[in-house]
Amino acid sequence: MMKIISTVIQLRSLIADARLSGKTIGFVPTMGALHEGHLELMRRAKRENDLLVMSIFVNPIQFNNKEDLEKYPRTLEQDSSMLETVGCDFLFAPDVKEMYPEPVNEQYDFGKLADVMEGASRPGHFNGVAIVVRKLLEIVEPDKAYFGEKDFQQLAIIQLLVKMIPLPVEIIPCPIVREADGLAMSSRNMRLTENERFVAPFIYQTLKQAVKLNTVLSPEELKRWTSEKFKKRPEFKVDYIEIAEDQLLQPVTHWNDANGVCIFVAVFLGNVRLIDNMRIF
Ligand code: PAF
Q1: What is the pLDDT of residue 102?
Q2: 238: number of CA atoms within 13 Å, CB side?
């Protein structure tokens, strides 16, 4: 039976007991509105550890847009029954006062990793992510914590965070999980209208075509090609398209500037902002 816990003190005490009995702990932090992508992280965490802890907390300080925070789907009841199916042991679901009894003013400097893409488009977002992830990791003290590669830049920020602090946890990146038609799974997909949901796989299809063109186009040309593709579809408004190396996520001008390069996009489909990425090599 899964235990639902809402206070830090209770969670700490349960974790201490588990540690005393020698159990390893896998942790999956989420903001709820769970989908198959989250469940994949949890199945893996369950396989690789004795105990699966997950958290659901819609973290207000990582939202730079009030409407996005208000409209973020909250489906705790449905989430809890999904969690039972993957054998989650502890669900930590605190409220805002429990997580932030005092005003928070920590400031992190992630250097140029935080200046690009999501960092540039959503001021303060990664600082809010870092504050909550650090807090959660310090409370749960997991052996391993699992994050999806859809939020590729978030994953890079968290890897840097645990190195900077430092925190004794292994961060496990997990591949993007897609719907049958290619749309990257995201809690925000629930907010798409029927028609928006129908056209949304265009993002995946465009990325899939783009990654094949690196033999004939330069990074700059490929970025332009991708942007032109989206311009022909009025349903989409591009926030950014970047072709960047996979470490500090800086844009590349030549393919041989880096050993690993990915394409990243953020687009608005109606009022919903969707991100996706794909490895070029
Ligand atoms: O990716 C998310 O769901 C959130 O950013 C995270 C890591 C749970 C922090 O609030």
Answers
A1: 97
A2: 20
